[in-house]
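Review form for a predicted model. The reviewer records the input and the model, then writes brief findings.
Reviewer: anonymous (R2)
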Amino acid sequence: MANHKSALKRIRRNEAVRLRNRYQHKTVRNAIKKLRSEEDKKAAEALLPTVVGMIDKLAKRNIIHNNKAANLKSKLMTKVAGM
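Model under review:
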């Protein structure tokens, strides 16, 4: 068990941050799945900027790695362009 007030606060904070990161990551994964399953090119093109923005935000906050974000965006853009 933690011996200091600051350590107890850190434990609480880490849990809150972990849950927030998990929620954001899961939300982006669902958005990516929705975009990948989209059949209509116009709908996919409309959805692409929001999904790319979400991915960029995760990378900026170090929830996912920058290279992973770049790979995801590249694959999504290639898929939408090839529709």
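Findings: Residues 5-37 form the longest helix (33 residues).
Further findings: The radius of gyration is 17 Å.
Recommendation: see findings above.
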